[in-house]
Fold this protein.
Amino acid sequence: MSCVATFAIFPLKQSGEDSLAPYVARALQIVKDSGVPYQLGPMGTALEGDYVEIMDVIRQCHDELRKDCDRVYLTVAIDSKAGEGGRIQQKVSHVGELLK
Amino acid sequence: MSCVATFAIFPLKQSGEDSLAPYVARALQIVKDSGVPYQLGPMGTALEGDYVEIMDVIRQCHDELRKDCDRVYLTVAIDSKAGEGGRIQQKVSHVGELLK
Amino acid sequence: MSCVATFAIFPLKQSGEDSLAPYVARALQIVKDSGVPYQLGPMGTALEGDYVEIMDVIRQCHDELRKDCDRVYLTVAIDSKAGEGGRIQQKVSHVGELLK
Amino acid sequence: MSCVATFAIFPLKQSGEDSLAPYVARALQIVKDSGVPYQLGPMGTALEGDYVEIMDVIRQCHDELRKDCDRVYLTVAIDSKAGEGGRIQQKVSHVGELLK
């Protein structure tokens, strides 16, 4: 099984902070430390792994932000497919090859 | 903690099935059996509970569809907030009261 | 063509406001005034219509919140299908009939 | 105003096609031809521009796929902010600088 997921997480009530970047950085540190393949994008972070593995990383990000944020918003999209991994790169390269 | 989530799940390669409703019904049966408060909508199902509880229900829905679907797409949005539950109804009624 | 959409919109920097409900109510007023079939849910509002019609309603909601919100977050999911309308109710009732 | 959006679009009933990549490539060609800054990711394509501009590109992608797909699913998330553009790169680099 290969699950490719993308998630975005941010506080809905930040206290004074003008930018969301510090919150995203805290979540990304957890992703990085987890060892799963990932790719940071402008609107979310893509991960690849099995379902339980990537959902566990996302739960840790949620718990980290909830430490000091009363309200957190999280979106996740998952493409879960039978077969081998390595799709985080393949999905992009397959499309690229088909472009004129 | 109260997490209100909405999720949508469906196969990306269905075999012959013309409608997605049978797949959604299988997921909804799991939600119903879980005992968490829920609300079925036209584009997704809303759940309320603590983070681990609702994510576990969603994982069961994923595993159920992956039994016979090679590829499944899942989206989840979560509003996770300190404080008491009962928000699945309150969120709708608060907005209703503010409408002219 | 029938498009059933669900959307959620809220400010990322609210000034003092403790609840998001006043913002959601402003968007919902626009939806209501538009005359398109809609259904308010705990995590978003569902709409039905043709693509251009519902996207125009959502744009008006965006423009309304941006009047006094420096930063607004919007998510939309659309299920766009050939054939007749009335799906905002049908999608829910079809699933309900399949449940034990 | 700078809107950074990410969108994913795919058919819900593909006829025989085993991969979604050809559909994504058709949408991406439209994005590329539009001239808006974009970034292809494993789970969606990020765009930057003003609200009307990027929503028009996404509508063209929808119309292209609906030419031969009876049912299309589309998700969009938009971060709409007062101020200057160039955020499609900045959002990623700001987070990167904050990582250990």
User: Anything to note?
Assistant: The domain at 2-98 of chain C is CATH 3.30.70.930 (Alpha-Beta Plaits). Helices of chain C lie at 21-34, 51-66, 87-98. The CA atoms of residues 28 and 52 of chain C lie 18 Å apart. Chain C has one domain: 2-98.
